[in-house]
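Lab notebook, page 48
Experiment: co-folding of the full assembly
Goal: obtain a model of how the components sit together before planning crosslinking
Operator: M.T.
Materials (sequences as entered):
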Amino acid sequence: MRDVAIIGVKTTKFGENWDVSLRDIITEAGVGALEDARVTGEEIDAIIVGNMSGGQFIEQEHIGALIADYAGLAKELHVPATRVEAACASGGLALRQGIHAVASGLEDIVVAAGVEKMTDISSTSASTALAAAADREWEGIMGATFPGLYAMIAKLHMHKYGTTSEQLAQVAVKNHANGAHNPIAQYRNKISVEDVLRSIMVADPLHIFDCSPITDGAAAVILAPADIAHKYTDTPIYVKATSQASDTLALHDRKDITTLAASVEAGKRAFKMAKLTPKDIDLVEVHDCFTIAEICAIEDLGFVKKGEGGKFTEEGNTAIGGKIPVNTSGGLKACGHPVGATGIKQAVEIVEQLRGDAGKRQVDGAEIGMTHNVGGSGATAVVHILSRDR
Amino acid sequence: MRDVAIIGVKTTKFGENWDVSLRDIITEAGVGALEDARVTGEEIDAIIVGNMSGGQFIEQEHIGALIADYAGLAKELHVPATRVEAACASGGLALRQGIHAVASGLEDIVVAAGVEKMTDISSTSASTALAAAADREWEGIMGATFPGLYAMIAKLHMHKYGTTSEQLAQVAVKNHANGAHNPIAQYRNKISVEDVLRSIMVADPLHIFDCSPITDGAAAVILAPADIAHKYTDTPIYVKATSQASDTLALHDRKDITTLAASVEAGKRAFKMAKLTPKDIDLVEVHDCFTIAEICAIEDLGFVKKGEGGKFTEEGNTAIGGKIPVNTSGGLKACGHPVGATGIKQAVEIVEQLRGDAGKRQVDGAEIGMTHNVGGSGATAVVHILSRDR
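Observation: model returned without errors.
Model output:
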């Protein structure tokens, strides 16, 4: 296996972008990443794109070919383009498939991208579309949507470990504070614990400020063999680990719904592959589709003991400057959550941090970062570890 | 790169299978292929599944995790499971991704599967869902569905090359004759040229018997490194080539719509990789979503000169016993076309033929076979070459 480096990155503005379509934003992200890497179209061997549901959101499947087409890589060059999907972990999977393609020696320059255009249908329909990430025959058909599923996780976490609504709110407060410094974030306003607790209840105990929004957005990274990365950039960022794990689709089939076993397993596999431990990680982007999800994630990945994530957050340990900065981008909560793009955006944030380009969000001396991307309520988890040093 | 072998195969009955759901048929195919390969669950390193649109057809995305779950591979083993999509070429892409995973040395035993459950919604909705494989903003929005797009290809083919409705009909007649001997085929009735010409017109010049049907079905193959294939089976079938190419999504952006440039390019790349020519191929499964598509395919892959596919078919050269038997399974036309499963089913047919297990469909002395899987109207093409000999 060859070492792999990220040599270019780009994320579009996340938000309700009604004046552009999916093909516009994915082209902006792809071309931006290529420019960042100073790579030409002729050099591209393959495109892998993560997208959860173009079919449901905009009646457009076959998005790999669409991207190759709109990037001008289809007509003469016939560049192979593949869509991968694992619900909200689609972006993370695209990164993983791209890394595999380069690591194996089958391809040299690969574009790994993610995109979702979610605001072109009503929010009710968006919730229905997203519910397709859960078990349709056992959960969706009963009316379960994701706020409801994560609310059950939150309720049990509170019951077992004494986690409080204030602690959940702290996740949102911290992520909005980070997002305020991120130019591409959907929400750049700071909020208080009181703001969260006073916001309308979506699914008890989750208020609307405990939930990530519906978002349009795209992101792309350019992958290359580590041996030639310096041809393109002075600051390649190296892939130290990629891992993926599955779990049951329905919550009711799990022994303990406060633990996402796929996250635990993907984390373990990644640390083993990188020969690292949680102590070695300088910052992490985790999948905070709901505030409770961030608390579970930092526990499941081993940054804090199970049950102590709420207290750990409340004490400020996950803020920039804390023991382990979590979601410096603003996370899914404040930066936004265009589901297929999120896993790639997480990698872009880590690359910008490790390059020292994160501006007011910069984690001092960041050398090793991690991304954690979850599909549905945890039936898929994808973890990557990235490093300044090869 | 390591050599890769197919060590187990299974296709479910194709048809309108209203008594089973997607999870039932994909589990039947996966478990059947594992039994055929005598592989246990613990040995599986990864699952790759092709599926075009679980979201639109059955409101279920995240189908990789669903399969791992229902196969009992998620809860304890956490086997990574990934869905890939390129419209009707999703199955071919799953096979290709699986081959890459094994060839690279990253995985040993990989399940490559495909599935589509299409009959749980009305046929009008199925046509709308399928139209998402075309360019939504330039074709779908104008009302174009696939019969219309392929009808335009057929019209121009007739105009430029003198291809006749009778020659198109011959494709359907031959594929129904083959399907009659295939126990898993959706249609096992023989038809005549007159039957085709008398059937209702869907989009001039395509009658309903020129069109592949709406189908439920699943298929799976088990991949392993060639070096250990004989541990599992006495008749491993070896992968000699895998290739993929893109083209513009919309027909109007192409120089000549009677040529699918992605098929031409994928064919060339596959022959180059295998160091073979069309003359070396003993049988081929091509993507006959419409009768005209089979004629274009045998031309684009180089089995006959451009424009001569209709005459070549009329003369019986593509029948079993002819110069190059095409679609011995019955093809998409008679065997059925569960879009995400088709690319895998094509490989299963070639494996059964090369093993000598194809019964009354058997091509005598078949040693090398090819599959050709197309997404949409040709924006994606995926080609594989399989062989009895390593």
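Interpretation: Chain A touches chain B through 67 residues (CB under 8 Å).
Next step: discuss with group before ordering constructs.
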